[in-house]
Amino acid sequence: SDTGSQKERVVTEEEWLQKWEMGNIGFHKEQGHPLLRKYLDVLLNGRSGLRIFFPLCGKAVEMKWLADMGHSVVGVEVSEQAVKEFFSEHSLPYCEEPVPEISGAKMFQSTSGNISLYCCSIYDLSSSIVGKFDGVWDRGALVAVNPRDRQRYASLMISLVEKNSSYLLVTVSYDPNKHKGPPFYVPESEIKSLFG
Predict the structure, then answer these.
(1) CB burial string 27-45: b at 16+ within 10 A, e below
(2) 139 annotated as belonging to a binding site for a ligand
(3) pTM of the predicted model, to two decimals?
(4) 140 annotated ligand-binding residue
(5) Which residues are bridge partners to 95 per DSSP?
(6) What are the C-alpha distances in Å from 152 to residues 21, 83, 142?
(7) Is 142 annotated for ligand binding?
(8) In a domain? residue 172
(9) Which one of 35, 114, 130, 156 is least enclosed by Cβ atoms within 10 Å?
């Protein structure tokens, strides 16, 4: 396959948590991602007050940026440390509550109510818990999920979006035989088969 030796690669939840604990988060962009600024019009499509989903959000600064524009932001992240760092680095007061439908999960919500971050596995979410979204900013999620879980991930994402939603997806292109990932290489043909 054109994904080289990555097809069988598995990164565990513990490994992701360890990356956060060790500060090994080269994927985090302090200034936000330039492609979101470049394609913001595509995401918003002239609309205001959108619900925007950040899968595997980490502590993405774009969440505050979009919330400050009047959008409602929902993220999911397995690392509680990342979620708490997001709120503290932006000096945002928040409250924390359990998510009754998901054992052990917590939801951290800004006091202003426009940013809600779920701390759990993304696969525990469903539209009955988080609702549906007008837009998705997938900056590092598809390329971070284990290759064997891509279909499951894409099906979940499709179930979370409204009919006229916008989905911005960032991938990386390189020779997958030279790097074990993550980020994983996802060929364009696979993106088309996953998302249609």
Answers:
(1) eebeebbeebeeeeeebbe
(2) yes
(3) 0.93
(4) no
(5) 109
(6) 27, 24, 11
(7) no
(8) yes
(9) 35
